[in-house]
User: Fold this.
Amino acid sequence: MTHATGRKYLRPGVLPHMWCAGCGIGTMLGALLRAFEELDYSRADTVVVTGIGCTGKLDDYLLTNALHTTHGRALAYATGIKAFRPHLNVVVVMGDGDSVNIGGNHFIHACRRNIGLTAIVLNNFNFGMTGGQASATSPEWSFTSTTSYGNPERAFDICALAEVAGANYVARSTPGHGWEMQGLIKRALANRGFSLVEVISPCPTHFGRRNDMPETVQSLRWLKQHAVPVERYRGLAAAERQGCFPIGTLVERDEPDFSTNYSRVRARAAEGRPA
Amino acid sequence: MDIALAGRPRLLQGNQAIAEGAIYAGARFYAGYPITPSSEIADECAARMPRIGGVYLQMEDELGSIAAVIGASLAGAKALTATSGPGFSLMQENLGLAVLAEVPCVIVDVQRSGPGTGLATKPAQSDIMQARWGRHGDQAVIALCPATVGECFSLTVQAFNLAERFRTPVVLLADEIVGHMRENVRLPLPGELAVVGRAAPHGEPATYLPFKAAEDGVAPLASYGGDYVFHVTSSMHGADGISNNNPDNAAARIRHLHAKIDRHRDEILMTRAFDTDDAQVLIVTLGAPTRAGRSAALEARAAGIKAGLLQLQTVWPFPSAEVAALGRRARIVVVPEMNYSGQLAGEVSKVLGPAADIRRVNRYNGTIITPGEILDAITRPAGVKEDAAA
Assistant:
């Protein structure tokens, strides 16, 4: 049996990639491209939309259609593409700053609208590209270049946010679980509504260095120890959950997506129902 | 529009005429966020788009609205959004992306008073410079200004034609007076007005370069989901659309963005001249004050003053040659506009020089400019300052 490599979606001559040793973006990119291959996506019918930041550089590696946008707005650009051409596979790849700091409004509304986009959010707990500043997912009292006395703010749980905002599919993974990540991305892509896969990733250069995990191996080990498959996580007592987070498929629903509902709007309009 | 109604006079509001013009031009995608005094454009598009195979999308804010419009355009739609000053401010960053990424789209700004929330939602013409310079980065833009309900329709069609022809965003810079005014207009039948689509690529998809300009200076644009797979970025890029930091490439790209507008000024610039052949007094207007200017010019003529009016339907790029040709022959140039700082008058001064007798008539209190005020400016002795008007 041969496994997907995803190579046919990878722009030739771009390796080695630009991301720091130990960063999870490369692992995520690989999982995404292999998921494309396993679903037999055509390059022409696939559009990958990115924002700004370390993760926002991902489009440079692709042979699919791509749109590299402004900071925080990738979901809104993608919404326009998907609403006008619902048959396209539209994937939005963002970092934590992109998706839930500056782009938080688009994030909750894309979930609420349940538009058939697949959002892959690489959460490395800080703004890596600009030097490691605190983001909306930096843990409370963690250290970043702008919280040298500890972060006074609480962190967003991106998956919980997506769930309550109405996303059809919500999953979480880490670069320490590459194989599982690929499977979750496939399930996210296959869901007709809004799908989110959060990838909790090390940032050894900035976040890890300031939070006692300067070595990638330490970060990956930490992820392995604290990421708990959701089925098991649900059975844990509150005290046992301390410091841990669930991975796997957290939410899977089949609510009608925006385009399905908009088809009904068109049908009603054709019947001449009052506007 | 309903075909049965086309070709016959119909009482229409300016904002409705903008929506009608967009649909006539082939627009099939609207994304927006409600704001007075532009909301009737959204209402009309929300009712009409689903009936003609189009999409109306109400976005969460104006940043998202223009982003969705750009995305839809890259997926092949003729797309628009409509807003007013505050929303137009929010759109500026993504509008810059549309300029650099050369994405055709139309942004309607029905101008209202500012700054801030201002005199919500009284008329103004204080976004003339925002349309030109509102974004970071250096760039050329196209902006058109309707003065009548009929022009709300025809200039919207033209805005789409220019956007598609030159692969660039076009701003339709209306104002609250024109947007909310109602007039009897005869909408053209299909085919009566030219409707232009974007140049599509030909040739081998594998060799398609989405930013390689053809001989006319404009690069053919494919659509996501078609045969041509392509890359678009908000970063500086080469002909292949991949980000590129080469200094020579960056300089060439910036020159290209300006040149594709500059070298086609004859296709873009639209002005209307009224009684200017012998005009010793030239009134230069755009948008709503055009009517008051016309009245003032006619009253001046009745009093023996040879007055005429030049209406700028295109404000950006600025019709410098047209203003110069008539302005240099005139003894007095009067520029009425609904802002304090003379955003239009400043451009006229730039063209005619410091020695020209340019008389500003400025309104910035949310009320309309009257013919009497313009007439006062015409008849005032040279060198006398205008009253400290509102």
Chain B has two domains: 1-268, 273-379.
